[in-house]
User: What shape does this take?
Amino acid sequence: MNTPTIEMDSGRSLRLLLYSVAAAILLSAPHLMPSTYWLRIYAMTGLYVMLALGLNVVAGFAGLLDLAYVAFFGMGAYVFALLSSDQFNIHLPFLVTLPLAAFVTMGVGFALGSTSMRLKGDYLAIVTLAFAQIFKLLLVNLDRPINITGGVNGIYNLDPIRFFGFTLISPVGYAYLIWLAAVVVIIGCFRLKRSRYGRGWEAIREDELAAEVMGVNTSWMKLKAFAGGAFIAGATGAVFASFQDSVFPNNFDFPQLVIVYCMVILGGLGNVPGVILGAVLLSILPEFLREYGAYRMMFYGLILILLMALRPQGIMGSIGFLSAARKRPDKDESGVLRASTDLYYRPEESGSGQGRKRYARSERVVLEVQEVLQSFGGVVAVDKLSFQVREMEILSIIGPNGAGKTTLFNVVTGIYPPTSGVILYEGEKISGLKPHKVVQAGIARTFQNLRLFNNMTVLDNAKVARFCRTKAGPLSILLHLPLYKKEETQTEHDVKEALDLFGARLTGYRFNQEAMFLSYANRRRLEIARAVCTGAKVLMLDEPSAGMNPQETEEITAFIKELRDGHGYTIVVIEHKLNVVKSISDRVIALDYGRKIAEGSFEEVADNPQVIEAYLGRKRH
Amino acid sequence: MDAYLEQLPQQLVNGLTLGGVYALIAIGYTMVYGILLMLNFAHGEIYMIGGFAGWWTLNLLTRNNVPMINAALLIFFMIVAAMMVTAFLGMTVERLAYRPLRKSPRMNLLLSALGVSMFLQNAVLTFQGAKPRFFSTSALIPESIRIFNFGTVVISFMRILVIAVAFLLMGVLTVFIKKSKVGKAMRATAQDSEAASFMGIDTDRIIVLVFLIGSALGGAAGTLVGLLFTQVDYYVGFQAGLKGFTAAVLGGIGNIFGAMLGGIILGLLEALATTFFPAAYKDVVAFVVLILVLMFRPWGLMGEKVPEKV
Assistant: This one.
């Protein structure tokens, strides 16, 4: 491996070079345009870059199919037009109307989002589509009985932009203003993507349920993406209205939406540089195809179909063949195949020294399940179940298939609210809380059938779990305030420490490997590491050794024990392999048909006739 | 209020006509959703092209507004031609735009459907122009039976035809789904396509069939509306598609009988709303209904609320 410092320095100077080239282009371009016509296209390109990036926040980052996006664009434009024209004789200065347009639009987006965000993906698409239609109908029809929107004629002759005693009318001035705004949006998007918000959204896009269970407040984060997109669209709309000096309903129609979607998808959903490139390409390219004007929208339709079929990740997509070829995960820099199993893990090797504190179970109750009942229609999966979990104990839950073990985990972690009954954690009621609240309270889980964020790196998978322990808001992230920087450093540190528990399995070059490239056993380990990263005190492991070979099973068993002995976690584990159960459990609970049929030490439970019956069936008399 | 009551029977008839059309469109949405869990945004365009197919047939078989064959036969041909063209189109769209995406995320399918919709709409715009095309139906129906009066209620022959054809098609579909072997295979695929394929059902063929039937019904609806309102243009599919979708959601998406019910209810609601609101806002009614249903009863009138499986 190269020394990291040199890499970082060359990276920094490359970035500086890139910045200065971009700055030079942006400063000189308005003066280099051959005609005012091209200057106009240059300015429009800037507007499209902003629009596409805003949509990218909603559709790309958070994966929400927002079909009201162009309506939000229109709303910003109309708010601006109404507040700075003769329509109502209101003439507010630009520096007031611009933020006003953006915030009003965001407010509407927030309201629409909060009513419809509970809906699954395609329903959201339909609600937003209906909203866009209502918006358009209102624009066209609200010229009677009182003339508000100007109907199909729109509103024109808007006030010129004035600030600090300086009036902006020249096309060159507009080009600078628009691209300045575009640069602000670009920087903001890059910062968002790299922050806890970006990781949270990516996790939601990958697997919404897993994101929620790992502590991401998914509905709130989706709403933020939706409102954030509306904010950018509204601001862009205001600038657009001023630039065009008028607004018409037709500026904000459905074809416009498809064009912006084409830009985002061409660039690759979620890929900021790609989306910028997509917006630039699709703003300029049609100008060369002028004589085929009639075919233009057909062409956009075709782009969508073809991209989805052939290259859904876009021209610069990160999941594509291009980047996969660049970073072969199984080879190191020199192209030598990496060994798949370096060293078998031994607990005493994992970072900690000898003199470290050891933990053992106490009698204090941390988690208490009281009379919990969970039924689906007529099927009772968990039937009036009560038990307690003591601090720092390892409690195993066993039972035949369909006994309700995983459902019990789902109820405790908040995925299903229990039909009746109460769950207490540290004396506080947690039943009825959403999963992310349960994690925040201190209970984290893993999934029986692995639910990692497959396209995210090992490091990012773990960082998502820190979401609920960090609080940097949009302002901190966008302005890189000290809170954000402190938290990011802390997150990086915490996460690496947790991954280091597994030694070389998840560290080193594997930090930047995508989860889907990990071996099966390593993915299981990452699931546990992710749960550890949430900072929870209680870990609920759903069949941690499922599908592992005897060697790996032994290793994971030792590891679970070490999590308690060396780190003081309280562990509830569902396990089928009875030798594992025998070697780690302080206590065992056996379930059958959702009821507790035995509780006690492994031997007590294993000798219980009811348990034997549940596993092997009744003896014939 | 009295004036309103007087209008009521008339509006009920109008609503039933619209409702039959919406139901036909909704079936296409709901069948596709039931099996592929996708919203076929392009379904509205299929309906629009159905309207054009009817218009082409009418043009082909009339000269100077005089039908060259028996008028009843001509109307029959129009509907059949519309159904054939749209069935073929629906299958083609499935094959080219949706099948390659069977395993990709749902959002990709939706975007592809959006692309298909945009493509078809603008293809018609390019090759047929933006001007509406008129159905010269005056010569098709003898003066004597063109309009019936029942007291204050006026019912045109075309309305009766639309209601009759729509309900006939729905009846045939119901029998097909409930009684035939293929219908059973369809229901099985909708419930669990993987399990169905293990039981020897060729689910790919079922999917093709679903697109075929759904599109054909949408195409029939397009021609029926053309006959009723005597015109079609490249843009009608968008609104009609939204209405059909609203009807499907109202009835409980994925449920064929729900789609029929939802369509009829939506048609009636719209017709009744025109007595209260200016006509320009007629379309708002459907969208408001849609948003309310999605917010308060997203599984629809006849759909079942299913807990999400983890």
